[in-house]
Amino acid sequence: MKQMDAVQRRLLQEVADLHDIPEGAYNFRANGESVGRQSTANIEITSKTDKSGIDIRIAPGTKRESVHIPVVMSESGLKETVYNDFYIGEDSDVLIVAGCGIDNCGTQDSQHDGVHRFFVGKHARIRYVEKHYGSGEGTGKRILNPVTELYLEEGATAELEMVQIKGVDSTARTTVAELKADAKLIVRERLMTHGVQEASSIYKVSLNGDGSSADVVSRSVARDKSYQKLDLCVVGNAACSGHTECDSIIMDEGRILAVPSLEANSIEAALVHEAAIGKIAGEQLIKLMTLGLTEAEAEEQIISGFLK
Amino acid sequence: MLELRHLSFAADSDGKDKEIIRDLSLTVDNNKFVVVTGPNGGGKSTLAKLIAGIERPTDGQILLDGEDITEKSITERARMGIGFAFQQPVRFKGLTVLDLLRIAAGKTLTVSDACGYLSEVGLCAKDYISREVNASLSGGELKRIEIATVLARSIRLALFDEPEAGIDLWSFSNLIRIFEKMRDPENNRTILVISHQERILSIADEIIVLADGCVTKQGSREEILPDIIGSQYATNPCRGMTEGEQA
User: What secondary structure letter does DSSP report for A107?
Assistant: First the structure.
């Protein structure tokens, strides 16, 4: 594997909690090229031949294994779209850690658009963790537009943890999921924007099989003059249950548009949505101040707890 | 020693300044358990908030052990050792009971220390330590956690605003035990409780009756309690509950 510089290592730590090469299968991408890859007996990673990206094939019955596919960009002005497809064998149970860190110290925009498709086999289970992070003092923007598509076979479970807390100037996140009978989707999204950042997060979850269920929860904080649009839609086409929740804190001059929506195309569909936007309650700040925190410290505690 | 000198507080009410605390002066000695009672709207909660710095007086001074704290912020007063338990505990999405106790203690608190505080308020620690302080907790549970946050702090003046409000009878007897333990002279704490409850009044060293923003009576329990017992200033929790009154 090629050597990474200090900036790339720092980005890697932010997005994948990694200090060095992880155990198991991995593919590291830095500044537009693969810098390290390892397949294992059960997890095979190969390059796509028709476009940029990789195929990850997980053998049926693979348990307690992990795949790391972090991306770091430290050159200003890079723009790329990467297609990664995951084929997850029946009855497997794996952890997939993705994530992208961009450090842009230059004047040109840097952009990474990752298109991830997951084909989750019958009764397989995945936990997918995706962290996005940006840093750098340059005027060039850090842009990330991830697309996540999930196709869950019967009895499959996907648990998604999507986190974007810092430094990404512009993001359009799109997540689409289609669930067959008894499949289950759990999403926990955490989003924070600051400065003049703009973020949109769009979900469309189709519950197509009897017994399928989805629980999509987004918690977000918009600070300074940032703007967020959260559009969470669950479609019930069978005897299914779905829940979406957008819970947001606005600070300073932050703005948020939350559009939770439900569509029931079956009399047996049970769907619920909740949405709440508000500033930090004054009484929460006062309570923590009576415990000895300053107002700024209290604010930080409340935000970090909310986005935990 | 807590000393209030000519304290006044006015708040805007329908465009007019309404005086809630009027030229109030009183002294509370160290190591005392003092209960402030009086009619609803008499200014009791406002008084506690003025002492904690949550409200600012329109006139007068507040001194703690001789130091004028009138201009000090909530945070500064907290750091000087003033603790405040809210009548309606605040909920936090995401912050756990352990997080809150750690913030209260102002230091890295071990899980076993945190469990100790929870046990003191009658909560089985392992069931609560990682629970979020959110709407999934009942009013009584929140109240006990609120009291635990005060216990976790090293304080010299503890203020409790109607600690019995919203808790069940079992918790109420437990509350009395907590107060009895807290008032141990070795702890060197002054405790000021806002309450109408006869049982809390009956363990007070001193009772202050506040009405219409002024102290109308102040003295030892022996002097004051016989005068007010059975009145709305010294009610019995069972009676309050059966009649559906606000405790």
Answer: S
Q: Where are the alpha helices (DSSP H) in chain B?
A: 44-52, 74-80, 97-105, 111-120, 125-128, 139-151, 169-182, 198-201, 221-228, 237-242
- Note the pTM of the prediction, 2 decimals: 0.83
Interface of A with B in 255-294 (CB under 8 A): 281, 283-284, 286-294
Tokens 């710095």 locate to B53
In the predicted model, is pLDDT for residue A253 greater than 90?
Answer: yes
Kindly state the average pLDDT of the residues B174-197: 85
Residue B240 has pLDDT above 70, yes or no: no
Query: Residue B28: is it exposed, middle or buried by C-beta count within 10 angstroms (0-12/13-18/19+)?
Result: buried
* Domains identified in chain B and CATH numbers: 2-83+155-242 (3.40.50.300)
Residue A176's CB is within 10 A of a number of other CB atoms, namely: 16
Q: How far is B231 from chain A (nearest CA, A)?
A: 32
Q: Report whether B236 contacts B229 (CB < 8 A).
A: no
Instruction: Kindly report, residue by residue over A48-65, the tens digit of the pLDDT.
Output: 999 989 999 999 999 989
Contacts of A307 in chain B (CB under 8 A): 94
User: Strand B190-194 and strand B33-37: pairing?
Assistant: parallel
pLDDT digits (tens, 9 = 90+) for B8-22: 999 887 778 888 999
Note the pLDDT tens digit of each residue in A155-182.
Answer: 999 999 998 877 788 889 999 999 999 9
**Cβ atoms within 10 Å of A210's Cβ, excluding its own:** 15
Rounded CA-CA distance A210/A238 in Å is 5
